[in-house]
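1st attempt posting a full record on here, be nice pls
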Amino acid sequence: MINKIFKKLFKYFHFSPKNIFIHIFLIFMCLLSIIPLLWLLSTALKGRSENIFAYPPVFLPQDFTLDNFKEVLKLVPIIKYVINSFIVAFFTVVLNVVLSALAAYPLARMNFKGKKIAFFAILSTIMVPFQTIMLPVYIITLKLHLVDSYSDTMGYLGLILPFAVNAFGIFLMRQAFMTISREVEESAVVDGCNSFQIFSLILLPMVKPTIALLAIFTFIGSWGEFLWPSIVLTNDNLFTLPVGINNLSGAFSADYRLVAAGSIISIVPILIFFIALQKYFIQGSQDGAVKG
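the predicted structure (as tokens):
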């Protein structure tokens, strides 16, 4: 009877005796990676009477409460921070998708002198961390008056434009374009389409999964960015969510229940965005890995 149950489970989950240990290892790693998030949620749900630094640690809240979330909403204008983060993330995603696709199209579908040199030069910038170029980017931002001291619009632009395009997005879109058969493009030329029509009406709809994948990565990166906004922004009204939540911790003390509650609130939009586009996620990552 037990053997039949195990056989049905193996068949349902596509397990086999040969790879069961691999699946056990992967399940263990998944649980290990999600523990910090669960601990954060546990801390946010613990009441004042409960010691969050108790040893041995208590995972399940004994004094369950939602007051920490209510207090966060009272202490900081978190709705305003969410709106600011959405504005910055939305335009960063749009610019990344548009500019990366425009840059990737000639690198994937056209032949011109210096094509490989241009591609590898762009690709090499992935190895340069943002912290290395942060000072010159900050100086350029100041000289172009893209800071919030001039206007709210300039403040938003100062957050968006430095991340409007990156080498990873260009590489991802190039790989996706290269998976499309040349015959499709040749048929469009025969029908009288020009290069822009081929790009916008034929190729872009065929790489929607990769566009969704790039949008997810860009949204997550922009939404969680803390270092650059904390340097550029001085106006509280333009604070993004990570910078605003940082105000919950003081210079010498912090209520970690409130910090955890604010962090959980900041994670929710990312989860919603990912769930909305998850059907494209795997397909998009496969499209970007077919050709080199």
